[in-house]
Design goal:
It comes from Gordonibacter urolithinfaciens. The chain is mostly helical and 236 residues long. The protein is built from 8 helices and 4 strands. It has a two-stranded antiparallel sheet with strand order 1-2. The protein has a two-stranded parallel sheet with strand order 3-4. The longest helix is centred in the first third of the chain and has 24 residues. The termini are far apart.
């Protein structure tokens, strides 16, 4: 009986925590809390078809931009054009995530950008520009075409960020393909805590739909244009 009460108290505490985060992230707005549900099979097939079509179109249409970024990286810094890093994928599977390299080759590996005391010291001459306009993420269109990722979904987590992974698992955020952009990216991006990121990723899974994906996509364009939330405040 004591175990039953303890479990109930734990669930109440978790519910109160999610409600607190919801009030902070969406003030004055009624939101659906993470429910750990998986969307319908129809939605999953439609989403994958959308990913294939739009990632292929993106690679073709943006090929001049991709080529220009590759030349800029190669011409301004010795080392490879692409940065490849193992990330957490769907259901805990790992995959190689591709980006344009924005940091020097001697940069400590597998360290989140926000953890550097002086990130600028490791940045390539064009790295800051590529990051601010999210151009470094464009090679992930190939990851989407391969099936490693989706256009919309929780961002793929670096392997060493175990705390964030553990926070996301109970909310089922690991049960879907990681995304090029996601709900957390348009609600603070790198300015939110791990708890808030996990909550937003779980909230996305609880509300997944074609309409919600469209909402995230178009708001992403606005966020990229404004460059909000690219980095934590300069003083931190």
């Amino acid at each position: 009986m004591d175990e039953v009460f303890a479990d109930g108290e734990e669930r109440t505490r978790e519910s109160n925590e999610w409600e607190r985060l919801a009030a902070r992230l969406h003030p004055g707005v009624s939101v659906r809390l993470p429910l750990s549900r998986i969307p319908s099979r129809f939605y999953a097939h439609a989403k994958r078809a959308f990913d294939i079509v739009f990632s292929a179109m993106g690679l073709v249409i943006l090929s001049p931009v991709l080529a220009a970024c590759a030349v800029a990286v190669k011409a301004t810094s010795p080392g490879p054009v692409f940065f490849k890093q193992e990330r957490w994928g769907r259901a805990g599977d790992r995959f190689e995530c591709w980006k344009f390299r924005t940091m020097l080759v001697e940069t400590p590996p597998d360290m989140p950008a926000q953890d550097f005391a002086d990130k600028a010291a490791f940045m390539t001459p064009v790295g800051d520009f590529l990051r601010r306009w999210s151009l470094d993420e464009l090679p992930q269109l190939a990851n989407i075409l391969r099936g490693d990722m989706s256009i919309i979904g929780p961002r793929p987590v670096i392997i060493r960020e175990r705390r964030l992974i553990d926070l996301r698992i109970p909310l089922n955020a690991e049960a879907v393909r990681p995304g090029l952009t996601g709900w957390a990216q348009i609600n603070g991006r790198n300015l939110v805590s791990d708890e808030e990121k996990a909550f937003l990723d779980g909230e996305y899974v609880a509300n997944m739909s074609l309409a919600f994906d469209a909402r995230v996509f178009f708001r992403t364009l606005a966020v990229v244009a404004s460059r909000r939330g690219v980095d934590r405040e300069r003083g931190n």
